[in-house]
Sequence to fold (168 residues):
Amino acid sequence: MVEPLGQLQVTVIRGKKLAIRDFKSSDPYVIVKLGNESAKTKVINNCLNPVWDEELSFTLKDPAAVLSLEVFDKDRFKADDKMGHATFSLQPLISVARLRHIVHVSSGETTLRKVLPDSDNCLSRESTISCIDGEVVQSVWLKLCAVESGEIELKIKLIDPPRGTKDH
Fold:
């Protein structure tokens, strides 16, 4: 059994300028995946700029983990329509979390790293990794791929596993 690196709390905050998949709007929801775990937000009816503000939890086991998300339009009588997808490497967040233990940052808010958009991520703008009262948090805007428009805002928090315990 692989020792978990911690709990990953992914808050799906909101979507912006999502694609129209129904007559004039869409009924979007998001599926977030990490490894073999997945979680889904609620459906927001008739909205291209939805606010979910929903927290989803995952067990982080792989230091090279990639978070992926897909946005869908909920349809009642046929298969749900795809509204884009995005992937995001958690490696910068994980490496900063390890660094935090070395530099002993524990109170207040400290910016530890900035991640710039590039061809290896779906970032739509610069992302900041901060230590907020001892917790490592990354704020992210992801540009959706394979769709005409849309962005998703996430807040990703890495919570350390309890010290001195083993996962059997």
About this structure: The helical segments are 91-103. The CA atoms of residues 32 and 69 lie 4 Å apart.
